[in-house]
Amino acid sequence: MKTKEPNSYSIHIVMYIVLTSVLCLALLSFLSFGAADISLKETFRIVMKGLFSNSLPEDIDKSHVYIIWQVRMPRVIISILVGMALSAAGTVFQAIFRNPMSDPFILGISSGAAFGVALGAVTGFMVLIPGIWGLPTSAFAGAIIATMLIYFLSGKMQTSTTSLLLSGIAMNFFLSSLMAMLLYFNRDRIENIIFWSMGSFSSANWDKCLAGTPIILIGILSLFYFRRELDLLLIGDESARSIGLSLRRVRIILLVISTLITAAAVSISGIIGFIGLIIPHIIRMIVGPKHRIMLPYAILAGGFFTLCADTFARSILPSSEIPVGIITSLAGAPFFIYLLRNKKREIL
Amino acid sequence: MCNNTIPLVEFKNLHWSYGENLVLDGVTSVINSGEFTAIIGPNGSGKTTLLKHIFRLLPIDSGHVFLHSKDINSYSRKELAREAGLVPQNEKGLYLFTVKDLIKMGRYAHTGRFSRETKHDRDVVIESMEMTSTLHLQDKIITELSGGEFQRVIISRALAQEPRILALDEPTTYLDPHHQVEILQLLKNLISIRNISVICTLHDLNSTLAFSDRTMLLNHGRIQHVGSPESVITVDTIKKIYNLNAAIVKNPLTGKPMVAIDSSLKE
Ligand SMILES: Nc1ncnc2c1ncn2[C@@H]1O[C@H](COP(=O)(O)OP(=O)(O)O)[C@@H](O)[C@H]1O
Ligand SMILES: [Mg+2]
């Protein structure tokens, strides 16, 4: 496994710019995918006109403009944001628990957020909070409780993969029974919640985009502030503290940030598994574990992967769509098993 | 050595228990600056625990630890890291950092969050690698190193902290004889060249005799003897502490005392 890093940081800067451009191009072209037949060329024109002028030429179909700007655009943007969020959160959870198998989904933190949303919806708590913030607040409340439980269940950050995974399994079981109970007593809303909790971007709209974007972007950006601390977390508690890291404080701050990012992602799209496991792992294998360098790659790759998965999910079947969570799990579960069987699973 | 050395670290009636297990039972002692202090003692006697207390890696049950006559609790983590560097025994090296990136982490306590890496930072890192002869390894991945190389890299990282004290937990236990001598010689040199004080736990009595200026013998969480290595490592103490029959003989090559152990374990 060679992860020798090119001497100059500027090579990475160039790569970030290239990858960002690729992501933007993919975003634009994937806008033309979907049930309504809108050509790539027309899509480009609609996007350009929408961005740079107010008046629309006569030859563009008004319904196409609506589909591109009100249906597909929020959806692709949200799928990218959620992918970025989950990948960044996975990276941080792996550093905090010093374990490559950590991921918001596997640890049960996504389920915690989902349960928070379900509970918030059923009890009416969500309605108490004004505007678009009810959903993310409920999700965060659920997620932070799950995070705290995992923190204590796993023996306060002992790094044994077994104990961490067992805590995650216990957490997921526990939360899914609670969820089932909740749904049992609220059968009228069952279909909506089940579909949503499987992970889907089909209900994406600009409102959700507006609520999630600032939380996710600020959360992700603040991680760069802790890039050196994230590195230090990987070398072990005692080594890190002897080098000068205020371990507990940093760990709690990072847990809160990554839980917040996860909750924002889940409140937008439900539970989408394994992105936080696969992407950081692959990126670390390619560019090494140094967060200043790997975080931007992990974030961009997470966005790109999720965008592709969702485009696939909504365009593979002619008349309906598959929840994107099913696609990512199909890719993620074999990867998870591969990691579990691999001796290198303890290496970050 | 000389009597008027400045106390560097001072333990005052230090107690520590892991649950019911009393590990440090009233340790009172000083560690002098400019010396090679060896801490010896049987497995489980509390050597590692004592080292950890110098870095505030454990909360103190009762008693005090002073560093430069200031209570250890009054230091911030970063201040502590600028005073003392640790080479722990249990760092597993399960990460894909390059040697250079790992050693650079030693600069953490010296650099602000937004300040860029200075020339001084780079020089210190290079110098630390030169001193431990790890410069040629700088682009290697940690998991590709041998045990001896990894140990030297961790020492470099501690040196990159520009500490005045270097504490090492059994740095030679898993090394072959050549690497053992290499590391201990390096520590000796650091004391004279860099004016660093070294605190080192050791198991090998002969290394202790050959390299340390002052030896502390720990048993059941108490300091049994402290003084020059020759005064601590005697036929009597070896019998009492390790339950082995031994003789102190003259090393024919160096002329220094060395321990010969009777391998028959008879009473
Ligand atoms: N993390 C721990 N939890 C509980 N007991 C411990 C722990 N670490 C060490 N001990 C106990 O403390 C005692 C002293 O250990 P240590 O300081 O590591 O001894 P040494 O380094 O001299 O071999 C031993 O009895 C050991 O079992
Ligand atoms: Mg020990």
Q: Can you describe what's shown?
A:
The complex is a heterodimer of chains A (348) and B (267). Chain A is mainly alpha-helical. Helices cover 73% and strands 0% of the residues of chain A. Chain A has one domain: ABC transporter involved in vitamin B12 uptake, BtuC, CATH 1.10.3470.10. With 267 residues, chain B is α/β, with parallel strands linked by helices. Chain B has 2 domains: 227 residues, Rossmann fold (3-Layer(aba) Sandwich); 34 residues, no CATH class. A 6-stranded mixed sheet of chain B has the order 6-7-8-3-9-10, with helices on both faces. A 4-stranded antiparallel sheet of chain B has the order 2-1-4-5, with helices on one face. In chain B, strands 11-12 form a two-stranded antiparallel sheet. Chain B is globular and about 60 Å long. At the A-B interface, helix 10 and helix 11 of A face helix 2 and strand 6 of B.
Largest inter-chain contact set: A-B, 28 and 34 residues
CATH homologous superfamily grouping of the largest domain in chain B: P-loop containing nucleotide triphosphate hydrolases
Hetero groups in this structure are: adenosine-5'-diphosphate, magnesium ion
How much is the average pLDDT of chain A? 83
Amount of helix of chain B = 25-40%
Task: Summarize the biggest pleated sheet of chain A.
Answer: none
Poorly predicted runs of chain B? none
- Residue fraction in strands of chain A: under 5%
Considering DSSP H and I runs of 4 or more, what fraction of the residues of chain A is helical?
over 70%
Question: What is the CA-CA span between the terminal residues of chain B?
Answer: 35 Å
Q: List the total number of helices of chain A.
A: 15
**Helix/strand order of chain A, N-terminal first:** HHHHHHHHHHHHHHH
Shape of chain A: globular
For the biggest β-sheet of chain B, the strand order reads 6-7-8-3-9-10
Structural class of chain A: mainly alpha
Q: Which CATH architecture of chain A would you pick?
A: Orthogonal Bundle
Largest sheet of chain B: 6 strands, mixed
Low-confidence stretches of chain A: 1-6
